[in-house]
Structure prediction request, 237 residues.
Amino acid sequence: MSATDTPAPRRVALISGASRGIGLAIAERLAAEGWHLSLGMREPALPTFADPERTHLQRYDAAAGGEVEWVAAALERFGRIDAIVANAGLMIPKTVIEAEDEDLDAMLAVNVKAPRRLAKAAFEPLAATGRGRVIVLASLSGKRVKSPTSGLYSMTKFAAVALAHGIRQCGFDRGIRATAVCPGFVGTDMARALTDRDEAAMTSAAELAGIVSMLIGLSNTASVAEFAVNCQLEESF
Ligand SMILES: NC(=O)c1ccc[n+]([C@@H]2O[C@H](COP(=O)([O-])OP(=O)(O)OC[C@H]3O[C@@H](n4cnc5c(N)ncnc54)[C@H](OP(=O)(O)O)[C@@H]3O)[C@@H](O)[C@H]2O)c1
Prediction:
């Protein structure tokens, strides 16, 4: 492990969509590990587990932009950025035939364009640490199209996977490692709206948070481009 590959004593992570579901679980996990957090939320509210001294709240609507301002505010508060978790996501369960352009535009805005802008805004601070980490919450829907009503969402999540690869490619020489995390059903509001399967039969948000923590903690010589995790058997995942 080189000098720049050693985790800093104060580690700072930005998490979008941290109000509930997977983003909130990731925030809870990283907070418990001592991370300083900058939480991007449409309605900022301090989570019950969060230490106000170590938590920065940013009003952030991924559809509206504001990533440059968010990064600047987090830097002003904590002085560095070690990781970003682009988690905010939107799922509109329409087929590629029934959907209108507006449906696709809405999902592209939150699932693809906003994560790219966030990574772009945070790129230099991440590089400055020598071991910046980018997690893009993609989906198994970014690896295969499983049902008619997931097709449109899949289009955006395939793009989110490509985004993570693109960040990995342009950040690698500067110590940035990017991972597309690709879960199947995770027990959150999003999955509950899509399936009536028992929540106990889905991957838990807490377990996924543990995976994200593990990925962020890996050294620069253990780059994980994609991490697929499923609660059920499928042909390839
Ligand atoms: N749950 C699954 O089965 C599953 C599987 C694969 C991938 N994923 C992906 O994992 C990520 C998190 O999903 P989840 O299951 O936690 O979903 P969720 O329960 O529906 O929560 C979505 C989160 O994203 C936030 N969000 C949505 N639109 C936003 C916007 N325009 N600006 C800022 N925040 C916004 C929500 O904030 P508000 O509270 O303000 O609405 C909420 O915090 C998403 O990218 C999703 O596509 C989920």
Q: What stands out?
A: The domain at 12-229 is CATH 3.40.50.720 (Rossmann fold). The longest helix spans residues 101-129. The chain has one domain: 12-229. The pocket of NAP is lined by residues 16-17, 19-23, 42-43, 60-63, 87-91, 110, 137, 139, 183, 185-186, 188-191 (CB under 6 Å).
